[in-house]
């Protein structure tokens, strides 16, 4: 499949109700509820404290040191999208800043996840435009080589298809395949309900050793206590 120099205009986005449901849960919960899948590598970090986002992916394949395709992608953004950008090879240049954020916001974008660098962090914080990137870097980029928009991309070791759900917060970024969005939202809700019961017991002073029935297995493995 030829993935360079193509823009797919048709994106089958995850169901908006499922996206809204997923937005209520943290990345760790969603990742666990999905069977411990979908996490991006932990070097992708929010560029300012408190950044969080949930939305449907418009994907971008960038060339190193070249942000042309982010401008091409802006035209394909719809309300509720998150732009998700991978690169043909590792690059930490500052692909994205306040001007592109202004453009994406005008199109309805909720944020950006990029396996590359980002700059204008103070402006992005003021705008509260959430960006998750591999680096903060003032180094500028050129517009010389086409990449692609709305093709499957691998971003920080996670496969992202256009229309998948992106959930990102202080703990990282998780990708939920569009077809699984409703099911994963339901599993996340069940997980949170179960955790609340455990939280109450731990708050009351009960030990995980007892709550999870760990003492027997530890004794069988020979754990001994010495006074």
What does this structure look like?
- Strands 1, 2, 3, 4, 5, 6, 7, 10 and 11 form a 9-stranded mixed β-sheet that branches.
- Helix 1 (16-22) runs parallel beside helix 6 (181-203).
- The mean pLDDT is 97.
- The chain has 8 helices and 11 strands.
- It has helices at 16-22, 27-33, 68-74, 98-106, 121-127, 181-203, 208-211, 215-220, and strands at residues 45-46, 53-62, 81-87, 94-96, 111-118, 131-136, 148-149, 153-155, 158-160, 165-169, 172-176.
- It is elongated, with a radius of gyration of 20 Å.
- It is α/β, with parallel strands linked by helices and 227 residues long.
- This is Putative 4-hydroxy-4-methyl-2-oxoglutarate aldolase.
- Keywords: Lyase.
- It comes from Streptomyces werraensis.
- Its EC number is 4.1.1.112, 4.1.3.17.
- One of its GO terms (molecular function) is 4-hydroxy-4-methyl-2-oxoglutarate aldolase activity.
Q: Please work out how many helical segments DSSP would assign.
A: 8
Class from helix and strand fractions: alpha/beta
Radius of gyration: 20 Å
**Largest sheet report:** 9 strands, mixed
Strand content: 15-25%
What is the first-to-last residue Cα distance? 66 Å
Regions with pLDDT < 50 over 5+ consecutive residues? none
Quaternary state reads: single chain
Element order: H for helix, E for strand: HHEEHEEHEHEEEEEEHHH
Q: How confident overall, as mean pLDDT? A: 97
- Proportion of residues in helical segments: 25-40%
Shape estimate:
elongated
What is the number of beta strands? 11
